[in-house]
Amino acid sequence: MRIRLTPARVALVVFFLAAAILPVFADPRGHLLRVAAMVLLFAAMAQSWNIVGGLANQISLGHAAFFGLGAYTSTLLFLKLGISPWIGMLAGAVVAGGAAALLSIPTFRLKGHYFALATLAFAEVMRVIANSWASLTGGPVGLSIPFMGTQPAYFAFRAVSSYYWIILGLLAFVCLVFHLLASGAIGYRLRAVRENENAAEVAGVDTFRVKLTASVISAALTAMCGTVFAQFTFFFDPDSIFALAGISVRMAMIAIVGGLGTLGGPILGALFLIPLEEVANATLSSQAAGLSQFVFGVILIAAILIQPRGLMAWWPKKRPAAKAAPTAAMPAAGKGA
Fold first, then answer.
1. pLDDT tens figures, 208-228
2. Residue 298 to residue 307: CA distance in whole angstroms
3. How many CA atoms lie within 13 A of 6 on its CB side?
4. Helix residue spans in 59-184 (DSSP H)
5. d(CA 80, CA 310)
6. Between the CA of residue 170 and those of 66, 302, 319, what are the distances in Å?
């Protein structure tokens, strides 16, 4: 099987190589590496969302529900039963995938903003349940993961660099899944559904099945990101883990700003937005309350207005093959050479 080296693929390989060697030059417990780890994590989250929002054109505002399910499932299994978060990550992916399947049955009949509102309501329901069920979830107080020193079997490390490499591996895995879906048969069916769902059904595409598959895979990957986030931060509560602006909208905006439905879009979006937000918070928050978020919002609006198709629209495309020179016209019949 021959792999074509396009500029985008070369850039993607260079990015992962550069990201892999970053901890060698950075402080293994420093702030820079922590910010870089959050960039990679949100890129993985946005790529997971991109499967539904980019390939299937199902704009979800409730992916925080799957993110929170992954965090709560793995953490509760660890705190209550002593099960390793590595196993809890897989359990959280199964729980989130099942929840996505149940949610998809009634909501896939909805179109446009109705679907977005339905997913938003689902995330809000999960937040209310987590806040109310204090005996299990800790309620508004949240859950704290005890620090156990370096115990790789229990997803516990002292150095930020260890979490960084795990998150980088998760991003590579999510990107691989997205690539396989986008370049495979299901990817062509999803694009057909995105362009014209009625025409796709007439052509014989089982639209419900392909959208359900995309939704379940997207939810499972998002839940895995939730598990990693919980282990990386050691604490979370319902209002932060199920947050509309902090989780659902942010992962959607990263994918949209980077380039919806593209492999490199979420990575570019995360590289642009997360450091920008970090700089705005560090430099402007002390001057006036909310000023950093205002400036960040203005820059975000400007970026979308300048390039609605995302940063990937500026990426150099593969040049079309040069057309062959026209051959000399054959002499007309009956005429001499």
1. 889 899 999 999 999 999 999
2. 14
3. 11
4. 63-81, 85-107, 113-132, 134-137, 160-183
5. 44
6. 16, 31, 32
Average pLDDT rounded to a whole number, residues 257-264: 91
**Cβ count within 10 A of residue 98:** 14
Which range (18-27, 224-233, 327-336) has the least confidence? 327-336
Phi first, then psi, for residue 112 (nearest 5°) are 55, -130
The token pair at 98 is: 């099942």
Return d(Cα 323, Cα 287) in angstroms, integer. Answer: 59
Let me know: does 74 contact 230? Beta carbons within 8 Å: yes
When pLDDT is averaged across residues 173-193 and rounded to a whole number, the result is 91
Category of 139 on φ-ψ map: left (φ > 0), alpha (ψ -120 to 50) or beta: left
For the four alpha carbons of 304, 305, 307 and 308, in that order, the dihedral sign comes to positive
Residue 2 confidence (pLDDT) above 60: no
pLDDT of 197 reads: 81
What is the helix (H) or strand (E) element at residue 186, kind and residue range? helix 185-195
pLDDT-based confidence at residue 329 (cuts at 50, 70, 90): very low
Domains of the chain: 9-314 (1.10.3470)
Q: Which residues contact 78 (CB under 8 A, 6 or more apart)?
A: 84, 85, 88, 145, 154
**DSSP run (H or E) holding 212:** helix 207-233
Contacts of 217 (CB under 8 A, 6+ apart): 51, 97, 177, 181
